[in-house]
Amino acid sequence: MAETKGKFDFAIDRGGTFTDVFARLPDGRERVLKLLSRDPQNYKDAPTEGIRRVLEEETGQAFPRDQPVDTSLIGWIRMGTTVATNALLEREGERTALLVTLGFKDLLHIGTQARPKLFDLEVAVPEVLYEEVIEVDERVVLRQDGCQLPRNDPKRSTGDSLEVWKELDLERVEKDLKGVLSRGITSLAVLLLHSYTWSDHEKEVGTLARRLGFTQVSLSSEVMPMVRAVPRGYTVCADAYLTPKIHQYLKGFTSGFKGNLKDVDVLFMQSDGGLTPMDQFCGSRAVLSGPAGGVVGYAITSYSQMEKKPVIGFDMGGTSTDVSRYAGQYEHVFEATTAGVTLQAPQLDINTVAAGGGSRLFFRSGMFVVGPESAGAHPGPACYRKGGPLTVTDANLALGRLLPSFFPKIFGPGENEPLSLEETMKHFRQLTEEINLFLSSNQSQEVAMGFIRVANEAMCRPIRALTQAKGHDTSQHVLACFGGAGGQHACAIARALGMKTVFIHKYSGVLSAYGLALADVVEEVQEPCSLQYESLCPGVVICTFSLLKGTLILTEYMRYVLQEMIQYCSLVLLVLFSGQITTEVFLHLRYEGTDCALMVTAAGYPSNAQSCLAGDFRSAFTNYLKEFGFTIPDRPIMVDDIRVRGCGKSGIKSVYKTKMGHGQAKPVTMTRCYFEEGYLDTSVYLWEELPCGHSIQGPAIIIDKNSTILVEPCCEARLTEGGDVCMSVGSDPHCALGTELNTVQLSIFSHRFMSIAEQMGRVLQRTSISTNIKERLDFSCAVFGPDGGLVSNAPHIPVHLGAMQETVQYQIRSLGNNLKEGDVILSNHPCAGGSHLPDLTVITPVFRKGVSCPVFFVASRGHHADIGGITPGSMPPHSTSLQQEGAVFTSFKLVTGGVFQEKAVTEALMAPAQYPDCSGTRNLHDNLSDLRAQVAANQRGSQLVGELIDSYGLAVVQAYMGYIQSNAELAVRDMLKDFARRWRQQTGSLEVESEDFMDDGTPIKLRVQINEDEGSAVFDFTGTGTEVWGNCNAPRAITLSALIYCLRCMVGQDIPLNQGCLAPIRVIIPSGSILQPSQNAAVVGGNVLTSQRVVDVIFRAFEVCAASQGCMNNISFGSEKIGYYETVAGGAGAGPSWNGRSGVHSHMTNTRITDPEILEKRYPVILEQFSLRPGSGGAGKYCGGDGVMRKLLFRSKVVLSVLTERRSTRPYGLLGGEDGAAGLNLLHRVDGRVLNLGAKTSISLQPGDMFCLYTPGGGGYGREEDANGRPQTKRRRLNETFPERGSVFEYRMAQEGV
């Protein structure tokens, strides 16, 4: 396909604002063109217009706009488009209905039950894509050997065996579908549980729906046959929602050509970086169609097969920046979220961060802040002359790095004026005056430079995270820069990351289009497997295997399956073109009993006598994991899925060469740009006039039609033979930094300290072994000052906020001079700042040569699945003393003089066995492995702190540590002053108070006295009830964590979460109360229940919002063989301008819930229902969110434990709003009895018993009679609300969802 001699070939990227066209002409020349994606006054469709212009200008023939374009001169067309992405962002897809298994109509509304933004009380979550839901009374369950319920005949399609418990009632389905059609909905998404492995019911529904007249029917079993109903459901909904819009666009596009492009090869870019025929282009694979071309473009043009130096792609646009990595293979993810919709499909790992040319600039509480808010295309930056705010683009213009004379005159209300330097400088002067009120003597240019440095550091953090997540050294990469804005920042970002080379392709301004011309045609096929890896090797008999076309009876499973899949991919590609075809096999592998599956290729691991024919996947899998210190040698390896990716090598080869130059390159003009050294004379060159081979010393600016490149001082640019710019980045002439406050450096140090905590977390996740830490990411890492005060903490798990600080400060008081270099401390005791015993905190003092005491501390806190006690999991519902909850460590030296004290810690972990009815840890191996991982994470943190001190000096680093803490303090003081002023005007008082109750009647009472002048407050919990007989006692650290969480929510903007938050606060907690119990009090319920009530009391005092469900609904069940634990969502409280969200976690927890299909696959339980609980939210002007109903049918004998609250007290409404409904725990016995279990219990269950959980709703806000209809939510583009995506974002969301 790539060779179409004598014809024009086109590669076109249709973006949201611009459409880029790359054309290869019949004589081999290349041409690029950029035009507006929408210009209805001049043309209907931008890609068609681009093709028309090239043909007309190059042939001299007329191609009238009002007539279809003659295709006789066109060889092929390749396109990438944002049509699907924009439809998703704008929620302008096709009207869609969802058909789902009975009991799960709200499954996709609830989703993972985690809220996307931890401190957003409104809980802004994108709405679902479907308009109506049809529930189908059918049910398929997985067959289990230990099931003690009556069985049906098994059905088998993969390694899973199934039973049909309820057949499909097609007559009822037909009636429901006709009703949907009558309401004008013609697109249908079908999601039936376990259809990924047995799809008969879905196929029957699909056949019926098509016969009835649905124009788009998407079946989850066809769109992506992978286990996990929620992401598969989102994916099939996206497919049904977006595919009709794509077809609509394609119909309009082809109508602009003669014969509707019948005889032209037309291919579209998919999210996975491969091209597919136009008629196979679908919604679920199209969301990254635009940016995928750019990844292919830089990968092929920047990566050297000889040097094999990995490349970071850096695509900086107007509202965001895309970051990705290429090291000889495309890095894919198989589940990622875009515009709030999680798609389960192969996608390039493109990480989008909310920092682009249009990112807005703020000065908040003494700190420079860039983004995430964006000026957008309208009004755009201030310099666009449309009344827009200051942005990164304005900062570059103010520094002389953008030259208005080289930009077209398309700005202003009439779109006929140049960029306005005057407007930009006017805004900067105003901002500089504001900044100088805080810290004087800044000039406007210094302020602009400061914002550029902060923006650069914000973009460096995701690049560090992307590389270091997989153990790669960021500095050993090439930075490949493209996109309109990236060239101005490339040198600075490369320097900050330690990179030595920046590569900017000659088509960097249109690289996504050029990448389409270089891309391969790809065909993929994927099938579920669910077998142990060993059983896939030759000679093992497997019954059946469903593969695309029917069912095959196979004897040597892997051999024939792979042959069928490879043949299918090859045949599809051969139909498209005759060229080189390669196929690659992937297995989706994980250790049995874990959730951490990896899509593994056997490239470099040839097959042997013990492996399957496609390669030695066992060695590939274990060697990959060894890099991260994580292997489980004796654990079976499971194959979840088999995937074959076929590639047809169809990319063009560029033969264009730049002419060799004689003599030096000549600048077209000189200008003055502002750098760290001040204003410097800067040469300006036109890219098209540069001869290759010559070097340009910075400072310089290189300009072409689509981008501006800044060559900074101490950097050198040269033009390669291919016409590309390659820059060598010199070291930073580091200016000595003093200990006095510099507001720019304050922001940069804040990023650096956070980056240290984040990198510690990556090491801990990579080197740990337990499911809790490695997969659920239930841990926090943090950096502390010499006084033990928190400096930075990542991630922001609410119940850990501030609690670790108490632990570190306890060790300083307790051990003092006994802390030596090489020591590491282990602690979990509540009196030493612990939250509950399974949270083990490992603390490492950081020493510096010549300083006798620690200069910093680093610590990591991880939740260990078991540390002994009276029940497995160490979270007993009926514990009455601390010893019953597991092993206790107060100031235990885990490492002494660099030696890990394995024997001593083992003895301590087994010590609970000495108490009645208690056991030592039930998983010593995982405990020891995870403790070593925590020590390794701390070692990494200590190293990074040392490197920071090496760069700036100890005095400077400690000074900025203090300034960052002061910044958080200032933000809290400002909030308290503002509240005090408003409260005094409203009531004449500077005191607030509130009270709420636990289910046992224990009061939690708060009185807050605010000093308006100082912005300080006393939080006095005097009057709170005494320590309780039970485990709802909450250590002091829990109250402090809840307080920091509330303060951050009330501040309402991103601030450093450190000890400065509590500096203006004095906390009084009566000793012996439920919030400061005695040393041996049981506390496990205080961590997960009482913490929520503390938040309720604080928010009630400040009248922030109505109460949310006020409970985490802790449910666990187990036997001698298995153990399971979950927390369940409820209703969120309403606020002064919003309805509470239904079916979501709130406040001190944000745990993701196990997917229904995973739950039923791994545990002896059937999930009968998981839906919202209508009417449980309190009424009001703004209504509280509804709780959920969750019904679990047990298939074998287990012990069920329930640890809940808000079963007798109800979540309060506020200012006239009604209370939310209380929760309810019911047990339906197999003999017909129905029992109310109460709030806290442990009970033995029989097969056939069903536990029904009804979680509390949220309180309403304001009187219902004050409501004027349903409140209207301001509609925003979802990329403004949810701008981020990619593996770095998913990792952070997973961390904040534990």
Describe this structure in words.
With 1298 residues, this protein is α+β, with helices and mostly antiparallel strands. It is 28% helix and 24% strand. The strands form 14 sheets. It has an eight-stranded mixed sheet with strand order 20-15-14-23-24-37-36-33, with helices on both faces. A seven-stranded antiparallel sheet has the order 39-38-42-41-40-43-44, with helices on both faces. The chain is globular, with a radius of gyration of 31 Å. The model is unreliable at 536-556 and 1269-1282 (pLDDT under 50). InterPro entries: ACX-like_C (IPR049517), Hydant_A_N (IPR008040), Hydantoinase_A (IPR002821), Hydantoinase_B (IPR003692), Oxoprolinase-like (IPR045079). Residues 671-719 form the Acetophenone carboxylase-like C-terminal domain. One of its GO terms (molecular function) is 5-oxoprolinase (ATP-hydrolyzing) activity.
